[in-house]
Amino acid sequence: MFITCLDLEGVLVPEIWIAFAEETGIKELRLTTRDISDYDVLMKKRIGILKEHGLKLKDIQNTIAKIDPLEGAKDFLDELRSLCQVIILSDTFTQFAQPLMKKLGMPTIFCNSLNISKDGFIDGYTLRQENGKYHAVKALQSIGYKIIASGDSFNDLEMIKQAEAGFLFCPPEHIAKEYCQYPSFTKYDELLNAVKKVLK
Fold first, then answer.
1. What is the pLDDT of residues 129-143, one digit of tens each?
2. Cβ neighbours, 10 Å, residue 41
C-alpha cells in the first residue's frame, strides 16, 4: 500500500516568503530552502528581518490570503488522491498553511508552528520534529506503507532518498544537477504518470 508525500511550497503553491518579499520589497526575504540548506539559519535570518522592519504575523497572513495554488495543482492533487493516500510534508507553519489547505481541498498536512509574541511578532518557531519529512516517511514505512515522495528543495532530499520512489518537481537547476539520480519533472501530468507507474 502506497502513500504519496509531497512538499507544499514550490510544488503545489507559490513560495510564501517570495510572495511576501515581493509585496514588501525586502529582497532578503526571497531566500528559501532552495538557497540555504540549513533551515535554522534561514528562519533566524527571516525572523531578524521581520523584526527589523516591524512586520508581524498578520502582515504575512494578509499576503497568504491572496495566494492561490499553482495552476493545475488542485486538479493534480484531486486525481492523485483518487489513486492513493496523500500527505503533504512541509516546513511551513500551521499559521500559514490553513487558508492554502482550504483552497487545495483540505489534504492532510504535517508542518511546524510559529512562536508568536503577545503583540503579534514572530519570536521563533517550533519544529514538529527535527528532520521531520524524513522521520515522517520512516514512521509510515514502519507501519507497513511504501512511500512515493516528491519535492523541489534541499529540505526534501532526505524524504526523497528514504522513499521507495522519489522524484524532483520543478527544482532549481543546481539541485537537479547535483541529484540527477532522481527523475525531475516540471509538469503535473509528468509527475502523475510517474506515480501511476510506481502504483502499477
1. 989 999 999 999 999
2. 11
CATH code of the domain in which 95 resides: 3.40.50.1000
* pLDDT the model gives residue 160: 98
Spatial separation of the C-alpha atoms in residues 164 and 150, rounded to whole Å:
11
> Residue 36 belongs to what domain range?
16-64
Q: Are 130 and 40 in contact (CB under 8 A)?
A: no
Is there a domain that residue 25 lies in? yes
The span from the CA of 1 to the CA of 16, in Å, is: 33
pLDDT at 19: 95
Grid cell 512538499 — which residue? Answer: 7
The CATH number for 31's domain is 3.90.1470.10
Residues 84 and 150 in one domain: yes
d(C-alpha 196, C-alpha 190), whole Å: 10
> Model confidence over 8-67: pLDDT tens digits?
999 999 999 999 999 999 999 998 887 888 889 999 999 999 999 999 999 999 999 999
Residues 51 and 144 in one domain: no
- DSSP tally for the chain: helices H, then strands E: 9, 7
Within 10 angstroms of residue 142's Cβ, the number of other Cβ atoms is: 8
Same domain, residue pair 107 and 151: yes
- Give the pTM: 0.92
For the annotated catalytic residues, the residue numbers are 7, 9
